[in-house]
Amino acid sequence: MAYLAGKWGRMNGVTEQSHKIDLYVGERLRERRKHLGLSQSALGKMVGLSLQQIQKYEQGVNRIAASKLYEFSQAIGVPINYFYDGVENIQDGKEEEHNGQISFIRKKTLAILLIEDNAADEVLTRKALEECEDENVVYSVHDGAEALQFMRNKKNINVFPRPDVVILDLNIPKLDGMSVLREIKRDRELQDIPVIILTNSINREEMLDAYRNQASGFICKSFDVKEFYRTINSLVKYWATVTILPSM
Questions:
Q1: Which structural domain, as residue segments, surrounds residue 6?
Q2: What digits encode the pLDDT tens for the residues 77-110?
Q3: Which among 193, 163, 195 has a CA at the least distance from the CA of 179?
Q4: Gyration radius from the chain CA atoms
């Protein structure tokens, strides 16, 4: 299943090493690709790159070499200077903050961490996320211990940005979902990340326990695929376009 990439892992940079120019060039590449109606896979085939490499370029995780930038310009029909048009307007420092105020400019995409051990449910959720209007960065882990280790290991930011939203199944091995939720909300580095509980059945006590432990939502997996897709689409739209997250 392909991982979908978007504009930013975080608004101030996907990694501490990402340069603002690389982020800008990656976004310009993404905008042109989307304008042409090309998928990331299709663009990759045009220039001999993998889907994952296109994702990293568009995120600004990897810097695009001059020779490869030329190949992109030929493939998508733009001059080289297209990638730098408007770059002089990028400000130094935290361009989205002013006097402690957070910008109301929202991200186009979300970095989503899916914690799900059931392969079929993981595929279904990924497909639902693919059906959303905007592309999203999606990464999966399959048990509670792995989830916490992944989120607390800052080296992982080179593989996947800090999540904007966590989608958490309660019935996962090694460390159950409720325990993972509690650990996230106890961790000062992670506790601001919204955690959405995704489960096969809604148990009132579980629901109350989840909300008492600061879950941001509690939704049920549906046997109706179309309904499930609508639920996931509404979830993504809410966090991407209605609310303003600290990472935005």
A1: 1-90
A2: 989 888 888 766 554 444 444 445 555 555 557 8
A3: 195
A4: 19
